[in-house]
Amino acid sequence: EIPFKDADDDEWYYEYMKKMNEEGAIKGYPDGTAKPGNNANGAEVAKIISELFLGGPASGISGEWYEKYAVQMKRSEIQLPADLGAPVTRGYLAYAIHAALNPDMTDVPDAQVFPDVPSGHMAYKAVAWMAHYEIIDTGDKFRVNDTTNRAEVSKVLKNVLEIVGLENFDL
Q1: Which long-range contacts (CB under 8 A, 24 or more apart) does 65-73 make?
Q2: Which phi-psi region, left, alpha or beta, contains residue 4 (left: φ > 0; alpha: ψ -120 to 50)?
Q3: Backbone dihedral region of 138: left (phi > 0), alpha (psi from -120 to 50 degrees) or beta?
Q4: At what angle do helices 150-159 and 90-101 cross, to 10 degrees?
Q5: Closest of 151, 171, 164 to residue 26, by C-alpha
Q6: pLDDT of res. 74
Q7: What pLDDT is attached to residue 91?
Q8: 97 near 126, Cβ under 8 Å?
Q9: Are 128 and 113 in contact (CB under 8 A)?
Q10: Other CB atoms closer than 10 Å to residue 64's CB: what's the count?
């Protein structure tokens, strides 16, 4: 059971958020909630990516809670959103996960998977990789510029951990 009063075990996102809580990627808010329907922002995504894939926050960094995660992303050469407090897009989330893992793309076809993810988009390779490994559902559109909420972020990350598995990457 997860410690969030706003995450009922009969909700579609429950297992995803439970896994991310177990991995230490999400801890929720002081009031005991996780706010799964709220948009995820750049600072939250930097924390989650740093905790799961980059060895945790950068050390020796003081300031706001998120600065040590932003520095870790920068040190890993992962582009940050211009405004860490603003909601991130589905495209940015895909890009950041892909950039953190830097997976082997040999088996991934270089083809446009979704019509709304043009070849010049920062998430193009990431989306192709995620579709190839069935981390994301392939439908008519990826909705690359739509914002993503905390429950959706948990779902994608749980799929990365369980479908692809970290043992497949040289981190």
Answers
A1: 69/43, 70/43, 70/46, 72/46, 73/46, 73/49, 73/100
A2: beta
A3: beta
A4: 30
A5: 151
A6: 97
A7: 95
A8: yes
A9: yes
A10: 12
**pLDDT tens-digit readout, 149-171:** 999 999 999 999 887 665 544 44
Written as six digits, the tokens of 75 are: 């040190």
**Which residue matches tokens 């040999």?**
106
DSSP string for residues in 46-76: HHHHHHHHSSSSPTT--SSTTHHHHHHHHHT
Report which of 106, 101, 108 is spatially closest to residue 133, judged by C-alpha positions: 108
* Residue ranges in the chain modelled with pLDDT below 70: 164-171
User: How would you label 133-166 residue by residue, b for 16+ Cβ within 10 Å and e otherwise?
Assistant: bebbeeeeebebeebbbbbbbbbbbbbbbeebee
Of the candidates 167, 168, 133, 156, which has an alpha carbon nearest to the alpha carbon of residue 16?
156
DSSP assignment letter at 3: S
Tokens standing for 139? 């439908």
Name 17's bridge partners.
Answer: none
